[in-house]
Amino acid sequence: MKLSHLLDAPPPPTSLDPLHIHRGGEHTVLVCLPGKFRTPTDMLSELHTRLSLVTEDLPDLPLLICRRHILAPKSALTGNPGDRGVPMRTNSAPLGMIMNEAVVDIHTRRAADIYRRWKSVTAATPVARPAPRELAGLGKDAALNQAVDEFLQQPRIAAMIDHDPRLGTADSTLEPLGPGLQALQAGRQAYIDYAVGTIRFGHGLLTLDGTLLRSGNHVPAADRLDDRMAYLTYAADYLGRLHDTVTLVAVHVDLPILHS
Question: What is the pTM of this model?
């Protein structure tokens, strides 16, 4: 079983963000595909058909696929791996791979290390208020918004950004200041459950019957921790009941914002 891609390009030692940015979009969505496929073209065609039901922004589908969420040590194709045009490795994986204990262990240790450093960095600071929705880009002129300024000036948030200057920039997701902050302040195990769960199951799951389950109605950084954890629990349960022949593909897209 190949684990090397999980260890490539490790984050900076000061990083408080267990997740990663991707040009495809802010939402990580796991798409369930029935069975195997003889060629990559067949798989991409099925993937495009299913994703088109939940988002219209699919500029270059292969570039949206992300291998950092799921192990893919072997091809999910049924054709002879030696055939011309059929790669040995694809950006998809059999269902069982996402449940692998070795993967969970790697990310659990990373999450525990982030929590330990965060606890040290913020030891002398009071509990921080949750991030305002404007921080996640849902309001106009977010950079000048008073609520955002007040949020960033809190001692705990200032200490986090001083330790990891990437927070709040294009080099990091905003999750450490959104649901990640809520999880950090809830304790070590709560944070590990949040971080490892999000890495494994993302922010959305497109089921075999075409139903889209998602962790919130907006961008991921605006999720409430309770909503995120409820989604992760449901996704883990759903995937755990599927047959191993189901193929999962992880993609990064921007799901539409739902106003409720």
Answer: 0.83
